[in-house]
Design brief:
With 226 residues, this protein is mainly beta. 9% of the residues lie in helices and 32% in strands. The protein contains 3 helices and 14 strands. It has helices at 73-80, 94-100, 123-127; strands at 33-36, 38-43, 49-54, 57-60, 63-69, 83-88, 103-104, 118-119, 131-132, 141-142, 147-158, 164-176, 197-199, 202-204. The strands form 4 sheets. The chain has a 7-stranded antiparallel beta sheet. It is globular.
Amino acid sequence: MTNATCGNVIPDPDPVSDRPDGHLTIQPRILYFGTPVVLLSTENEDGSANLAPISSAWALGWVVVLGLGAEGQTARNLRDRPDVVINLPAPHQWTAVERLAPLTGRDPVPAPKRAAFRYEPAKFAAAGLRPEPSQVVRPPRVADCPIQLEARATRVHPAAAGGFVIVEAEVCRVHADRRIVVPGTQHIDPAAWSPLIYNFRHYFGLGAELGQSFRSETPGRGVDRA
């Protein structure tokens, strides 16, 4: 019988030598290999709003799966109050995201965070972002973000790796800046919208379009199909 988990500490007997396939076996501290940044709006116990950036989110239909630090205020809020807004910033808004990065809504600050984080109850103001009332959930949307997903957490459970939780959030309503919607349709225009990407702790936007899936319902723009 084999162990179902491997952790990240299996030693490589020859980690740095040249190999025929040109690859090295490495152990990076993080695996953010190009993931979108989202800002999560949640409700604190006193009814105020918390706003936190994360870079572990992916969508399956109308369910968005979120990876959160288990000791953060967002995880605490979602365990008790499931309403959440998943706000997607544009690339030029990375500075607002970075202003939020060293802040926490937990008071007192959890011990593992004390060296690098500080408590800040007014997250929207600290980031220079504007709150906007939601329509079907309690936390506010980020008015400045081009895409805002009102959602409710249907499941919050521990991740396989310690220190994290996995949240499954069902989207109830989608708001999109009219400038990124294909006119007369329900589709986001992928040529007009670029997410903010977190790539090994650096911020990026998308490059030029390379092509489109055979399942795409929107036309490509300026793509060389030769």
